[in-house]
Amino acid sequence: MKKKVNKEEILKKGNSTFQEFKQFIARGNVIDLAVGVIIGSAFGKIVSSIVDDILMPLIGIIIGGLNFSNLTIKVKDATINYGLFIQNIIDFLIVSVCIFFIIKIINKLSKKQNKEETVSKDEKTILLEEIRDLLKEK
């Protein structure tokens, strides 16, 4: 027994699924997340370069000319690169500090914007109340 395939029903289901997908992608959160990932990736490269090429050599000079990337421990056949681990910790801390300050700046800007919106709403409310009172008097 063959089941008859209804092409129109399949097209409708496909179109509704496509519409749902378009709505999902068009949501601000998804687009913001994608932009954040792309910018974060580029920002991570910059911070890694700052750590690897500028800070770690300076820290190495301060602590006696030590190059962190060469710090290893040999245990039988295994090599433990604890210097790279230290470098990654410093990298993480720098990224965290940068993100902290960026979020702090964004929060300040959004608070200012919210205050301005509140003030403008209050002014509009006062004007509307004055207009209402004038209309009542007439």
Overview of the structural elements:
The protein contains three helices and two strands. With 138 residues, the protein is mainly alpha-helical. A two-stranded antiparallel sheet has the order 1-2. Helix 2 (28-62) packs across helix 3.
> What is the H/E order?
HHEEH
- Which assembly state applies to the chains in this document? single chain
| Structural class by sheet pairing and helices | mainly alpha
Number of H/I helices: 3
- CATH class descriptor name: Mainly Alpha
Low-confidence stretches: none
Q: Tell me the name of the CATH homologous superfamily.
A: Large-conductance mechanosensitive channel, MscL, domain 1
Biggest sheet: strands side by side, in what order?
1-2
Count of DSSP strands: 2
Keyphrases for this structure?
138 residues; mainly alpha; two-stranded antiparallel ribbon; Non-ribosomal Peptide Synthetase Peptidyl Carrier Protein, Chain A; 4% strand; 3 helices
Produce the secondary structure layout.
Elements: H1 7-26, H2 28-62, E1 73-75, E2 78-80, H3 82-137
Antiparallel strand pairs: 1-2
Helix pairs in contact: 2-3
Short synopsis of the structure:
With 138 residues, this protein is mainly alpha-helical. The chain is built from three helices and two strands.
